């Protein structure tokens, strides 16, 4: 990903600005004051290798394998 770090002046509470210089989806080079969100918003999820909006895989199962050592009832973790 093409990023540049621009150092801010001593009066700023932040040290650096991080500036996206090229689109990660189509390698478009941004002009200095071009809107990044506007350009990136024109891309579709499939441009990022994701499924289109409204289409997904099988979401019926749990996201993660359950670990019996991790309490899921809001209580403290139990020892194995
Ligand atoms: Zn792009």
Care to describe what's here?
There is one protein chain. The chain is 6% helix and 12% strand. It is built from one helix and two strands. Strands 1-2 form a two-stranded antiparallel ribbon. β1 and β2 form a beta hairpin. The longest helix has 5 residues. The mean pLDDT is 84. The structure holds zinc ion (ZN). The site of zinc ion has 6 residues, from loops.
Briefly say what this structure is.
The protein is built from one helix and two strands; from the N terminus they run ββα. It has 80 residues and is mainly beta. The model has no long low-confidence stretch (mean pLDDT 84).
Number of strands: 2
Bound molecules: zinc ion
Helix proportion of residues, in percent?
under 10%
Order of helices and strands: EEH
Task: Please tag this protein with its features.
80 residues; mainly beta; two-stranded antiparallel ribbon; flat; binds zinc ion
């Amino acid at each position: 990903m093409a990023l540049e770090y621009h150092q801010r002046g001593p009066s700023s509470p932040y040290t650096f600005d991080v500036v996206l210089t090229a689109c990660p989806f189509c390698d478009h080079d941004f002009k200095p004051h071009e809107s990044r969100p506007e350009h990136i918003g024109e891309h579709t999820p499939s441009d990022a290798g994701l499924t289109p909006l409204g289409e997904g895989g099988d979401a019926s199962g749990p996201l993660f394998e359950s670990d019996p050592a991790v309490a899921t009832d809001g209580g403290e973790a139990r020892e194995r």
